[in-house]
């Protein structure tokens, strides 16, 4: 931070992608002298909140299970519209081995293990590095509940399967979002289809695998709620009590792991404030992803910034000048790669020379272009 206060240095802070592209195209060099940013990541068992089969992954899908995959959706925060939406993932990779970590404990008991430089989203939408967080600061949450709905910032709950269908299909007004395999816990996009009410009625009346006892009971209750007579209300009240008692009787027979998973999802985490931050004594492999458009994702119940890779800079025509380390080894396809550790004084000098060489090349190219234009 102090180095950015030097004369001749302009720190732009967080800027939109379009503006960033303009600067990269104008400057011509993408310099990355440190490891920060390209390897800010989380441990492999960090649960990613995304459309999924909730029976298989009640907490979220561990990020290490997503390595090598792309084109799927995760929950992301839209800064422009100030709402939770879906973001498409470009890539997921293991970005570093045996990385140093911080343990961040939240007021709801959640334990997050991230690299010190990973950026967390605060309640106001700004970002802060993990090692700069302060006790008492509240992080931007992503609420889920057992009925599979996502809580928007204003407090309104949105059904997960309809939220996903809007992203995939667009306008779903007047349509029924149907679970193809009949499993209402499975909200993966491939398992959702749009049907007209009549098509949906025909399906549930002809496919016995969809007509479960639970579904019949739910439809019966919905019909009875239409008749708002005192007798019906009394009946429904009694029915609700019976159902609640039955649920808790069944709950006591569940394995302890299943009970804990249900309770963790059931309890709404209202504050998500930081209780403690400490250095982890265990080093571990870490992972990261890149999310299109919004560049953040929900991990462990809160939103964090994703890795904005060198690939964008290269696509926009900039020459990368980097330390050949971690993810940069694979994401940087051309340009200048300096070998070694940035904290080594000799490597620092080599990087400076490489950067000057890169700037000289770009400057020469730009002069040639100006000369050609004049001619």
The pLDDT mean sits at 81
Number of helices: 9
Radius of gyration: 26 Å
Main beta-sheet annotation: 4 strands, antiparallel
Instruction: Name the beta content range.
Output: 25-35%
Low-confidence stretches: 35-39
What is the β-strand count? 21
List keywords for this structure.
alpha+beta; 375 residues; four-stranded antiparallel β-sheet; elongated
Structural topology:
Layout: H1 17-27, E1 29-32, E2 42-43, E3 47-48, E4 61-62, E5 73-78, E6 83-99, E7 102-106, E8 111-114, E9 119-121, E10 127-129, E11 144-145, E12 149-151, E13 157-159, H2 160-169, E14 176-179, E15 192-195, H3 197-206, H4 213-225, H5 230-251, H6 256-266, E16 274-279, E17 284-291, E18 296-299, E19 302-305, H7 310-315, E20 319-323, H8 328-331, E21 336-338, H9 345-374
Parallel strand pairs: 1-20, 20-21
Antiparallel strand pairs: 2-17, 3-4, 5-6, 6-17, 7-8, 7-16, 9-10, 11-12, 12-13, 14-15, 18-19
What does this structure look like?
The strands form 8 sheets. The chain has a 4-stranded antiparallel sheet with strand order 2-17-6-5. A 3-stranded parallel sheet has the order 1-20-21. With 375 residues, it is of the alpha+beta class. The longest helix is centred in the last third of the chain and has 30 residues, at 345-374. The protein is elongated. 27% of the residues are buried. The protein is 31% helix and 25% strand. The model is unreliable at 35-39 (pLDDT under 50). The chain contains 9 helices and 21 strands.
